[in-house]
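Hi support team,

I submitted a single chain yesterday and got back a structure, but I'm not sure I'm reading the token output correctly. Could someone confirm the output below corresponds to the sequence I sent? I've pasted both exactly as they appear in my results page.

Thanks,
R.
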Amino acid sequence: MQKSTITATLLLLPLLVTMLTGCGAKEPSKPPEKITNVTVARVAQKDLLVTESAVGTETALGAALDYDPTRGGGNTFYVRLPFPEQVANQLKLGQAVTLTTFAGNKSAQGRIREIRPPLNVTTQSRDVIAAVNNAGWRPEGSIRGEVNLGVRRNALIVPEQAVVLRPAGTVVYMVAGDAVTQRRVKTGVVSEGVIEIVEGVKAEETVAVDGAALLSDNAKIKVREPAP
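Hi R., thanks for writing in. Yes, this is the structure output for that exact sequence:
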């Protein structure tokens, strides 16, 4: 055998060993598929109370003329509540208002006494003056005023956590077995932890709730029991 042939053979040996070794090697295993733990809820259908609220304080004039930390029953307090203009336009004189103090979380029922013209161009709000007869309650600091604007009959609702904002728009994740599909929806009223779905779902369909923000279309899931 010529010297050049021996040299060439020696140079090819590492390549041949690599090829022979590779023939018996296993393909690398795929990483485990991501599974997201979620809780689920069925789309419910019920009458939904439509409420709006604003945070205000006792009127400056009332506080200046009638301030007395020891004053008792029989007095009337006036509270200024800056509601958004589109909400204020739906209110009526004499309409009931639930007033709650942040200090002590005490509540009282009042009535709308005055709806003033728009003054704040920046916030587009209107001052609504509510009057409440003192019954062991007095406004202290900030006060939350809540009004009832009506009832949505047979509204389709889901927990707020089920609704997620994605580049495609507002979506929920519909549960089918161990996977979900993304579905665009149109939302309506938000009230006490639930949100109305105006378009996109049907009653009794199942949606992902806790964990929905971590999902994508066709994601794998494991349903877990909600926290007690």
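A quick pointer for reading it: The first helix runs from residue 3 to 23. Let us know if anything else looks off.

Best,
Support desk
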